[in-house]
Amino acid sequence: FMKQINFKLALPFSITSVGDINGNKDIIISPNPTTSRVNLDMEFKKSTGLFVKLYHFTGQLIYSKEIGNVNGSYTQQMDLSGYSKGVYFIQVSTDKNVFTRKVVLY
Question: What's the whole-number average pLDDT of the chain?
């Protein structure tokens, strides 16, 4: 017999819906789910500041990198092999928007 337990988790960010970055294509994260590495692929039509963060599902910030200004294509590989299996959130911030995507490490 299993009892369902409901709880609320307060994260320091909100999960955003699929959208555009500065009127461009969405963030592509692959492979997802992953066993070790993920690639972040983004395209920008105009120059924008970029910041990338990785959060554990508990809301703990575990990685943060200021990229600076980018224009055109941007790709970053993130190595998650040193982290425990589970759910993580990648947050990408531009000058005007913040986008958060879920990544599963198994």
Answer: 84
